[in-house]
Amino acid sequence: MGPIDHRRWLGKALRAPVWLYRHGLGWTLGERVLYLVTRGRVTGLARETALGVLHLDRTEGTVYVVGHGSEWYRHLQEGPALEIRLGRRRLPRPAHRFLTPEECRSLLVRHRDTHPWAWRGLAPLGRLPRDPSDPAQLRGVHAVAFHPAYS
Questions:
Q1: Cβ distance 144 to 94 under 8 Å?
Q2: How far apart are CA 118 and CA 110, in angstroms?
Q3: 10 Å Cβ neighbour count for 56?
Q4: How far apart are CA 50 and CA 125, in angstroms?
Q5: With contact defined as beta carbons under 8 Å apart, do 95 and 149 qualify?
Q6: pTM score, whole prediction
Q7: Three-class SS string for the chain?
Q8: Which of 49, 67, 83, 90 qualifies as a cystine partner to 37, CB 3.0-4.6 A?
Q9: For residues 64-91, b (16+ Cβ closer than 10 Å) or e, as one string?
Q10: b/e for 110-124, b at 16 or more Cβ within 10 A?
Q11: Average model confidence (pLDDT) for the chain?
């Protein structure tokens, strides 16, 4: 038996939420992980990803997610999301809004201050800055708000 490839196992673990949502088990993740389907910019094929939810505004029905210079963000720049799922809820063709750098910074700082232990453990996995209050560390970090009724 050969050596264990830890990168391969980490990649599979990070893709596990997509598998759970595909098989109707996304509800087991609660409201902490959002499943996003976009259309690929080059191929036009559906692309799936799972994103950590930084904030859920229940009064407006808005879900805020953040990521580091990822393909999902570039796909959204080209066209709307095909679908999002959060827990047991499914929203086809949701509207989205790109947050300004200041809104992104504010969202990250609030999340870090509210969940310091989770931030220390999970921020490096998502390639998020150790100190989101430092604008230099926010290069390449983008935030998006999904909502059923933006227009």
A1: no
A2: 13
A3: 16
A4: 13
A5: yes
A6: 0.84
A7: CCCCCHHHHHHHHHHHHHHHHHCCCHHHHCCCEEEEEEECCCCCCEEEEEEEEEEEECCCCEEEEEEECCHHHHHHHHCCCCEEEECCEEEECCEEEECCHHHHHHHHHHHHHHCHHHHHHHCCCCCCCCCCCCHHHHCCEEEEEEECCCC
A8: 83
A9: bbbbeebebbebbeeeebbbbbbbeeeb
A10: ebbeeeeeebeeebe
A11: 86
pLDDT digits (tens, 9 = 90+) for 92-116: 999 999 999 999 999 999 989 998 8
- The DSSP H or E segment spanning 77 is helix 71-78
Amino acid of residue 111? H
Q: Give the whole-angstrom CA distance, residue 82 versus residue 146.
A: 12
pLDDT for the residue 6: 58
